[in-house]
Specification:
The protein has helices at residues 5-10, 12-27, 40-46, 70-85, 97-108, 138-141, 158-168, 186-196, 208-212, 249-260, 266-279, 282-304, 330-339, 367-371, 376-391, 396-412; strands at residues 29-30, 57-58, 61-62, 89-91, 117-121, 143-147, 172-175, 199-203, 225-229, 240-244, 308-309, 318-322, 342-343, 345-347, 361-365. The protein is α/β, with parallel strands linked by helices and 429 residues long. The structure holds D-serine. D-serine binds at residues 34, 97, 128, 178.
Length: 429
């Protein structure tokens, strides 16, 4: 447990759990599309002395003294975010994606008597809770309406979105998804927003790394405000980021602080600076491109195994398959896969007849495995193992046989963030 020597000395119980989680992450095929492996440099900044500092406010306008180095750290992070995404303004303080979205709504719908209607993709067809789902406060504070994907193709139908926008006449149209395997046409969303006099919010939490790496069109030229998390395809620390046009800068900053948050997490902001520098390197463009190549290969492997893949493939980092075509529910499939070392999550498929707690689908993604240097050959193998493990879900020896093969494969592709050494496989016993 050499990577946590101080925790080991002070708190061996916790250290043991950390060491086992470390090993689990190393020897498991991480297929959750919203997860990744942060580099050692990102994790070092996250765990730095910046944890100790309060700095409510913004650079050069703070409520606490001692900001000699905090201000330039936040400014560096802001400058890198603006440069990477070509944005007029960046706010690097949101604690994560949900607070970033709430701040965006607050910034975009400011006046008391303003139309509070938002229009976004429904959760069960790939949206997000904070896009106005009924259990999210976003539906309490704003009047939420939703569009869906096409019933047959499961792809966004922009004519139908336009019709819905004309019906609802929203103040804000939200585009962006947590479970949509195809490219999003931000220019088309802008045109729809302009036609109904709405502002456009693009939530690129899932695809920020693809946008930064040039493998997905950017919403920055089109959207009034762009929100994202920083730890998914962008491969940074867990955090949030808002990009916007200059005219929205003051409203966004005031919505984040003092509107919704207190002291920024300076450790996370510094770690984001590291991640943004990593994402500006030419290798990151190759990484983003490879994520998409791998996603297509994974979808092809599932199709070859007789599985229904939603929309028939993928243009981004994400693949959604219908587990009922393997005679399992999404949850049964995800549990069997987890035993076999293939980590994913059950998810609704569009217009799912089953409930969100027990849906039909499984959501997969290639960002993490691509960070380990894997390519289409490994995706083919993993696709085959997914089919085998779901089909053999009552056969524990078979699941364990697959799991050992998965662990052998992971050992051959060391992950970022494991520079201090390969964890002992025996920690998983
Ligand atoms: N939890 C994220 C995801 O997995 O997509 C969304 O917030």
């Amino acid at each position: 447990m050499s990577h946590t020597p101080f925790v080991t000395a002070k708190d061996p119980d916790l250290a043991q759990l950390l060491a086992r989680e470390n090993a689990r992450q190393f020897y498991t095929a991480k297929l959750i599309p919203s997860e990744n492996y942060a580099s050692n440099a990102v994790m070092e900044a996250t765990g730095s002395v910046l944890c100790n500092k309060y700095s409510e406010g913004y650079p050069r306008k703070r409520y606490y003294e001692g900001q000699q180095f905090i201000d330039p750290i936040e400014e560096l992070t802001i400058d890198r975010a603006k440069a990477l995404f070509g944005a007029d303004h960046a706010n690097v303080q949101p604690y994560s994606g949900s607070p970033a979205n709430l701040a965006a709504y607050v910034a975009l719908i400011k006046k008391k008597n303003e139309n509070k209607r938002i229009l976004a993709l429904s959760l069960s067809e790939g949206g997000h809770l904070t896009h106005g789902h009924k259990v999210s406060v976003t539906s309490r504070f704003f009047e939420a309406h939703h569009y869906t994907v096409d019933r047959d193709t499961h792809v966004l139908d922009y004519d139908a979105v336009r019709e819905r926008a004309l019906e609802v006449m929203p103040s804000v149209i939200v585009c962006g998804a947590t479970c949509y395997p195809r490219e999003i046409d931000f220019a088309r969303f802008r045109a729809i927003a302009d036609e109904v006099g709405a502002k456009l919010l693009a939530d690129i939490a899932h695809i920020a790394g693809l946008v930064a790496g040039g493998s997905h069109p950017s919403p920055v030229p089109y959207a009034d405000v762009v929100t994202t998390t920083t730890h998914k395809t962008l491969r940074g620390p867990r955090g949030g980021l808002i990009l916007c046009k200059q005219k929205m800068a003051r409203s966004v900053d005031r919505a984040v602080f003092p509107g919704l948050q207190g002291g920024p997490h300076n450790n996370t902001i510094a770690a984001l600076a590291v991640a943004l520098k990593e994402a500006a390197q030419p290798e990151f463009q190759a990484y983003a491109h490879q994520i998409v190549v791998n996603s297509r290969a994974l979808a092809d492997a599932l199709l070859a195994g007789g599985v229904r893949v939603i929309t028939g493939g993928s243009d981004n980092h994400l693949v959604l398959f219908d587990a009922t075509t393997l005679d399992a529910t999404g949850k049964e499939a995800a549990v069997a896969m987890d035993i076999a070392g293939l980590e994913a999550n059950a998810n609704t498929v569009p217009f799912d007849p089953r409930s969100p707690m027990d849906p039909s689908g499984v959501r997969l993604g290639t960002p993490a495995l691509t960070s380990r240097g894997m390519g289409p050959d490994e995706m083919k193998l993993i696709g085959e193992w997914i089919c085998q493990s779901v089909r053999s879900r009552s056969d524990m020896p078979e699941l364990i046989r697959i799991r050992e093969q998965v662990r052998d494969l992971m050992a051959a592709f060391p992950a970022p963030g494991f520079e201090s050494g390969v964890p002992a496989r025996s920690l998983l016993d």
